[in-house]
Amino acid sequence: MQFSLFQPLPYFAPELPTGWPQSPSKFAPRYGLDSVRHNLEIIEAADEGGFDYIAVAEHHYAARQLCPSPTLAAALISQRVKNAKLAILGVDLPLHNPVQVAEELAMLDTFSGGNLLVGLFRGTPNEYATYGHNPGESKAMFEEGVELLLSAWSEPEPFGWEGVHYRHRMVSIWPQPVQRPRPPVLVSGNSPASAEFAAKHRLKIGLSFMPVEFIPKAVTGYHEAAERHGWKPGPEDVLWRGFAHVAETDEKAKEVAKKYNFGDLHGILAPTERQAPSFLSVVSEAMEAGFGGAFSGGGGAVQTPTPQPILGSPDTVVERLRAVQEAGVGIADLILSSDALPPEVVLEAVNLMCKDVIPAFR
C-alpha cells in the first residue's frame, strides 16, 4: 500500500475563527506566515520520511484549509519536495472552466517532471455558496467537464466543443502533460453512479471518510462496473481518505484527539448565525442534487455512520490500516493535521508514521 499525506494547509493560530464562512477580519498576517512555515515543515518531513504523495485540495473561505487554489499550492510544494509525487485531491471542477483547469494541470505535470496525480470532484456542498454556482447543475457540469478535460489532454489536433454546459470554438492546450497518455485521474467512488462513471472512463476512485466495513462493497461495485467496460482495476486504482493520529501509546493518541476535537468532519460546514439561512438553503439544494451518501453496493446510495479517525500507537495504526488495505485499498490518503492541532504535535505524528508505520507496509 502507498501512503499520501493529505495536508489541508491549516491556519495555525492561538485563537481560531469558527463557523463558515469565516470573517476576513480574523486573519492575522503574522499567523498566516507562521502557518506557511509550519505546513512546509510538515510536508518536508513527510517527503523525507517515505510518504509516496503529498496531497492538497480546493476549499474556500475557511481557516481549516488555506487552499483556494490547489494547483498553485502544488506548484509551490513541488519546489520543496524531492521524493514524493504531487496529488491534487482535488479540484472542484464545476466551479471552473475545465479547459483552463486542463491547461494548469498540464503545466504542473510538465514542471514537476510528470509526478502528478489528479483528483476531480464536485466539492463539498458549501463550496456552491462561494462563486454563486447552481448546485442542482453540478453533477451534469462535473461529468461533462471531466470529459472535456480528458479530451483536451488526448485530442491530437485542435477541436471545438459544443456541450450542454461548456462551449469552446477552439481547444488546443499547450503544454500537454508529459505523462502519456495522460496523468492518472481520480474521481469519487462513494456512490454507485460515481463508480460507474469512473469505470466508464477508466479512472481511479477515491473513497472519502468511508468506514472500513463499507469499503469492500464499494470496491466490488467499482470492479464490476470496470468489467462491464472491458478492463480490470488494481489496488493502486482505489484511494481511501481518513483522519489518522499516531502517538507513542493508544492512550496518548486518544487524549490528543479528545483535547483538540481531531477528526471532526463537519466543523467546516457549520455556518455563522448571520450566514445560516442562505447557507443552509444552498446546502439543501446541493444535497438534493446528489451530494453525500456512501456506496451501498445495491441500487442506490445510503448514508453511512460518521467515520472515526484512526488513532493509536504505531502498532495499533498498522493494524487499522491493514484492514483498510485488505478491503481493497492501494493508497491511504491520511489527514494528520487540523487547524486546532498544534503543528509540533502534527510533526511528531508524521515522524512516527514514517519511522514505524509506513515501513511495516514495505
Automatic annotation (TrEMBL):
Keywords: Monooxygenase, Oxidoreductase. Pfam families: Bac_luciferase. The keyword Oxidoreductase applies. Residues 25-329 form the Luciferase-like domain. Coiled coil: none annotated. InterPro entries: Bact_Lucif_Oxidored, Luciferase-like_dom, Luciferase-like_sf. Signal peptide: none annotated. The keyword Oxidoreductase applies. This is LLM class flavin-dependent oxidoreductase. It comes from Streptomyces plumbiresistens.
